[in-house]
Amino acid sequence: MRFVLAIVAFVVAAVMILAGIAQRTVFAPPAQVSAATTVSGEPRFIVIDGAVLNSHPGQQTLYVDGAKNELVAYGRTADVTTWLGDQSYATLKYDATTASLTSKNVTPSPAVDTSGTAPSTTAPTTSSTPSADAKGPNPAGSDLWLEEFDGTDANVTRMNVPNNISVIIASDGTAPAPNQIRIVWPLDASTPWAGPLIVGGGALLIVGLGLYLWGLYALRRSRGPRRKGGPKMPKLPKAPKYKPSKSIEATPKGRRSARRAMIAVPVVLVGALGLSGCSGDYWPHFGGTTPMATSTPITTELPKSKDVQPPAVTVPQLERIMTKISASATTADAKLDSKGIATRFTGPALQLRQANYAIRAKKSNEPALPAIAAGPLALTLPQATSMWPRVVSTVVQGSSKTQAPQAITLVQETPRSNYLVTYAVSLEPKAKVPDLAPAAIGAAVVPPDSKLLLLPPQQVAAAYGDILMKGPKSTYFNLFEAQGDTLRPAVGLEYKTKKKAAIPKTASLTFTNKVGASDPIAMATNDSGAIVWTSLEEFETTKVVEAGAEITLPANSQTAALLGTNSSKTGIQANYGYQLAFYVPPAGSDQKITLLGFAQGLVSAKEVQ
Fold it and tell me: Among candidates 187, 40, 170, which has minimal Cα distance to 102?
């Protein structure tokens, strides 16, 4: 009976092991599913919606080919659509029944505004399209994209995007986009019963082997005399024992050696099969569905409420933007490139930097302005909006311990333009930034004439300029915090009084100021106040008041470098630019307006009559 059970165990074990192995080989499910298409019509742009990319769960792998210069980027669907504006493009759809991709050409209405007051959803129409010979916009380097790949990196891209993200495929905006497209999704290729079958079969094989050995042992014990008989027979003389040679002894024979081989083979087989079943794909997951290995999903950090506007940028997106701005500024600072710096700076920040280049070109010992660091970003405050222009503020810590953190304000005027540095100020040593909205939500931009603040943003620069001119006699003196303000003693009333006293009687010195040409930018804080960035221009005018007198400047002065001469028989006017960042508390608060940071310097000089 034991031998019968052993044979049955061997047969069942063999069936189980073979079934487990078959699940991982001949009956193994496919590891992925793919869909491919060749887009006809040579469109300049191809858009793949997030819903198409999520037709199957898991990481999406996108393969593109068919163009000399290839670019793949992804961003918010609304941003991608608005960036395309009046450009025709092709969209892809996924047919679940046939597991294939189909394309459809979209011609936006000419009424779509690419300047970007608000993103709009375009629909197919028969309206006229831009000329095929016209040069199209180049999507390369756009600050709207969350990520961008070009060249060989664009041939194969792996992503895990949500439904509100779309992919744009292009070349240079003028040449046709790569039209050979394939999307691959991973499938659950696990075989949860392969492990139990293989290991269970191995265990049953051991049980069968035990039964077999038990049967042999019982059979051996059952042999021998059953009863005692008559007198014993005399013993026969023993024949001499045969001693085999060593070479013959080396080869084991007989039933015992065969049993050793039979034991070794199952043990090795079971060990190998047991080790092969260690992978998680071989075992069932009773806690839920089988997990699939995918990349970290990309998130746009958007609020879920439909009534809340999304932040203008995500933190990773801003980090990428600041890296590009830092690289452009570093190159321009080194080459004194006034045109190059204008590709990433505007307003008072551009004016100050270009003036610094002009001074350094004639004055070799003139220090450069503080470098724009790429990061790390200590604070990110994007505007909560889906319209343009868009505002983003950040505080860059920088890697240098000797340089103060910089508060930088960026403005993107249209969907197709990049963010430009409008204000770049160094924070005060004791500046305390109030509580701000998290980067995932963003903040509202406060109107320049808002009366919900202690002072409307458009009046802050003029009020502070009045304090610099009049000191304690200014009407606004008690509205601003003097403690911690390092700019006021450096260029305020006391400084101006001392400088006037040093002017000879043959000349006169006057100070005037006015609000800068750039509009102030105010972003709301959590306490209903606002961070206000504004600019101020101050004019220092020296005139000759006695006939025959002459004004002489130090030869190595900044004013002489910009003026092109160090003397004048009539007068000289030096224009200083101030970039200012304030915290303005809400109306009715007992707090004062606090200077958070500033940047200032000579921006122009001219001879006056």
Answer: 40
